[in-house]
Amino acid sequence: MGFQIDTAELSGLVVEACFYGVYVTLFIVSTYVFAQRWSLKIATLNVPMTVTAVAMFLLATAQLSVDTANVFVAFMHNDRAARIAFLADVSTKLFSAKHCILISQLLIGDSFVSYRCWIVWGRKLWIVILPVMLSLGSAVSGTYVMWVFAHHPSTTVKQQKSWVAAIFTLSLCANAVATSLLAFRIWTVDRRTRNVMGVSSSSLMPIVKILVESGAINAGYLFIYNVTLLTGSQSLEFMAQVATPMSGIIFSIIIIRVGLNTKGELDWTVDHRSTMKFTPKRKQTAVLETEPGSATVQAVEIHISQSSSRSVTEAGEDLELGKVDRMYL
Predict the structure, then answer these.
(1) How far apart are the C-alpha atoms of 164 and 12, rounded to whole Å?
(2) Which of 133, 134, 270, 302 could in theory staple to 326 by disulfide, Cβ–Cβ 3.0 to 4.6 A?
(3) CA distances in angstroms from 297 to 257, 272, 286, listed in the order given
């Protein structure tokens, strides 16, 4: 006998509880890091990030509660045949609740990545059209699947596996596109800035590494989920249970790793409001005007009115990093 759904649900609940414990710890640490930076006036209150973090934590808590209730209801006063039938029933309220939470968590995570990308690219809407459309496609697929499960009790997850796969495939693509655009933008800004200022050290590459690593973890999980779904394994429910706390863990790790930067390589992106102006007919000197105490970079503008051998951009082009708070990343 293969891996049955009751075994998958019970083992998934145990692993989910462990992941949730890790997530709670990281959530508390990330909250402490942000509170310390806020109290020292190093960073301002980042409303989108705060709302996202709280929403993901509440969803992870709700997911654990629903999964616990689902397992208790299934295992109490039922033999194994009845238990498996209950857990495989897609029309129950507990089944609908746990999967709606999972889809909501994916949508929130993807939306925040797209938001970060929009911010870093100077609020250019055309940049995030593709990842936003992919996220909307994932949301539409999830809504359709949940509607089918609610109105057609005889259907199964395997019968709807194409639509379920669409949810996670589109989410994977949206996350990958937005993360790639975000990392590319930061890398190009860092490279151009270093070329102009004539320095070899990188101030933004740590951010790129953090984004790529977190994106790779998320992409790896979604890929494994799709493979599990397409193979028809009952361990699909196991994967669904650990998804919500894992998303929160990745989100919290980004906040902590950036916030606990002790080398100061990101300080200029947080502690100064800078404008770099390159005057014509001079020795490529940069006039750096700063306003101490600012928590974000409002803009990094490069004005070149006369081309030269070390020109970074064409005349009049602005290189804008937008309001890039360290905590956005």
Answers:
(1) 19
(2) 270
(3) 19, 6, 17
In angstroms, the CA 46 to CA 308 distance is 40
- Contact between 109 and 56 under an 8 Å Cβ cutoff? The reply is yes
pTM of the model: 0.77
If phi > 0 it is left, if psi is from -120 to 50 it is alpha, else beta; for residue 261 that is beta
Eight-state DSSP code of residue 153: T
For residues 167 and 141, is the Cβ–Cβ distance under 8 A?
yes
Give the model's pLDDT for residue 127: 93
**Nearest 10 degrees: CA dihedral of 202, 204, 206, 212?**
-130
- Measured CA to CA, the distance from residue 207 to residue 200 in angstroms comes to 17
Residue type at position 293: G
Residue 273 CA: distances (Å) to CA of 248, 258, 289: 31, 19, 8
Confidence (pLDDT) at 285 = 44
